[in-house]
Amino acid sequence: MPDPTPFRALRRSAHRIHHATPDSRDRAVDALRAFAILGVVLGHWLVTALVAEDGGLHTASPLQHMPWLAPISWLLQTLAVFFLVGGQVAVRSLASARARGGTYAQWLRARLTRLLRPVAALLCLWAVATAVLLLTGTPPATIHALVQLALSPLWFLLVLAALTAATPLLVRLSPLWPLAVVLHVDVLRFGLHVGPSWLGWINVAAGWLVPYTLGASWARGELDGRRSGWVLLCGGTAATAVLVLAAGYPASMVGVPGARVSNLDPPTLAAVTFGLAQCGLALLLRDRLRRAMERPFAWAATAVVNLSAMTIYLWHQTALMATTAAALLTGRRLPGLHTLPDSLVWVAHRLAWLPFFALTLALCRTAFRHHEQGPRVPGGGRSRVVSVHRSADEKAGRAVRRVV
């Protein structure tokens, strides 16, 4: 019979975090952020394959060979939810900082430190790894594939950092303005087939500005009713269906290697309308999430994910590659890991590999989370930058830190 002591300790820790959290904290925000991060991680692990062929590795996707699996991307491409939460949290934290007498520069430095601190560790490790791969004669194509995969999460952080810096200018901006920009860019690109090749990259800022400004509207209290959630969900769903079925946009909401058009690289109008539907669903689920987060274990798990959100996001692709590379030492091409993702058999094997990816990611989180959580300060805690929202919830933050 297992020793119940660890379970009692876990239960006490969960209850301590639960009771230490101020009533003013909106736990639905944390739940949505955790869902968005874990959705991206799981999505990448399911649609990214490193195929071992001709003495090297190259990337592939099951969506290339089985396009009918595109609905998986509808469930796991959750970036719009993250930008929605990012806008809501940024606007509220800026208002809170100003109410306490802080300046914009102080607020921005604190926000960007938490956001970008973990990046340095990732860049350093991959600089060393790239040098080792070059010295050991690894094929350049393999090195390019690995480095591109490892550093691909950085584009998201750069966009989020830019929008965070511009928050004072975006507080009152209507989401309709960036949505109109995306519409006009796509009309020029796909409707009239005119304009320079770089035109689509305007949508990198405009596309993600739509959910970010929706988050700002949420912070202002303009999206509190359920009607706004239903309008976004139904309108976004209908618009996406029309764009995919009648306008020729890809059904997949993630990039597919070799595809003529990607909905994410750069974002298309279909990706933005799909994001609107996701944001609407997120707004409709707020009350249920708040009730679910009243359960101590659910809230403790959510708090732990939020405390290491950027570490988890930055290192999840490295965890996939580390598992893949370690398995190559067996001298065999293991199904679901090194083989071509062209059948449901591959999908079944990939699902079996997910716990190994998660274990490797947990090791990465343990090794590198201090880069996100900041240096320790006297008294056994960590610096203020570790707080999930860095507001009046320092008490809850200390409780979480004692556990993790």
What's a quick, concise take on this entry?
This protein is mainly alpha-helical and 404 residues long. Helices cover 69% and strands 2% of the residues. Mean pLDDT is 88; it is low at 377-396 and 398-404.
Explained architecture:
It contains 18 helices and two strands. 69% of the residues lie in helices and 2% in strands. The protein has a two-stranded antiparallel sheet with strand order 1-2. It has one domain (45-403). Helix 2 packs across helix 14 (286-292). The radius of gyration is 22 Å and the shape is globular. The longest helix has 32 residues, at 104-135. The protein is an all-alpha fold and 404 residues long.
- Strand line-up of the largest beta sheet: 1-2
Helix content: 55-70%
| Structure classification | mainly alpha
Q: What is the CA–CA distance across the termini? A: 27 Å
Count helical runs.
18
Strand content: under 5%
Oligomer: single chain
Largest β sheet strand count, sense and barrel closure = 2 strands, antiparallel
How many individual β-strands? Answer: 2
Mean pLDDT: 88
- Total domains, how many? 1
Shape: globular
Order of helices and strands: HHEEHHHHHHHHHHHHHHHH
Model regions low in confidence, pLDDT < 50 over at least 5 residues? 377-396, 398-404
Gyration radius, rounded: 22 Å
